[in-house]
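Changelog-adjacent note: as of this version, every example in the card shows the full chain rather than a window. The one below runs 312 residues end to end.
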Amino acid sequence: MKSADIQAALREFAAKESFRGRGPLSVALVVTQHARAALPLNVDKLVTEGGGQVLGLGKGAVQAILSRHGVNRVLASEGGRTSRGSLGKMRAYVKFLNRLNAAGKIDLDAVERFWIQRVHEFFAAKPIKIKLDSSRGLRMIVRDIVDQAEVRQKTAPGVQYVGAVMQYLVGAKLDCALGVGQFIHSSSSTADAPTGRAADFLIGDVAIHVTTFPSEGLIQKCRANLDDDLRPIIVTHQQSIAMAEGFVRNANLADRIDIFEIEQFVALNLYEIGRFALEGRKVAVKDLVARYNQIVSEVDTDPSLKIEFRNS
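Full-length structure tokens:
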């Protein structure tokens, strides 16, 4: 099976079977290790003699796997060994792996990397927190959210927190401005090409692309938008504005593609929605956060992407 197909199947499985938290992640890592010896797996051979625990599921085994990936933090003191649900999780995962194996040879290294990424997410799984302070500008509130995502991304290599937060923020902002149901939200990990999407958001004749780092590939998508009589907009990080403008100029499309910095793109709309009034702005920010959290719940499996208000 192709790596992309395996990753998609794993994401679906993890969401359906709720493979989150210390116990389920420990089970996934250890059972994947068992699969390296032979596939298909036999459920009966993965249960201890007493019948109450998953074979080999303990702190030492789990930490040995984590250490291969440079993870030194302890996932679970007992590796989830004493969890009542571990056997059920093991059986579900064995059934899943055997089904994948029947469909073609599995890249178990890719499978293990998927679970390691989920471990990184688990360790970082604290919601982003913002303070609703009337003395702060709305642009600074948006910047605070993006900055926290950047810090989190540095502690969890391979997890694209910034891009996800930016996409869901823009989606929430558009829903608040236009009303829910004007377009379909997608996971930040969903690529445009396989799904036939013209952009991250397509509203009327406007194609909105949200990106952390503009590229020539993005400009080609914008060119394709123009060929289809669509008006492309790029929303990007503050530090990437100059880069985006450079790519657009080089492509001789400077007068046809609009580029916006995300802080301004979101904040100005909040002022308008709040009718430039103090109480209106507070309501606008709360509504934005509420809609953002709904989007995360609907299209993503990482709860740490959600936003909470912290006390002043």
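Structural remarks: DSSP finds twelve helices and six strands in the chain.
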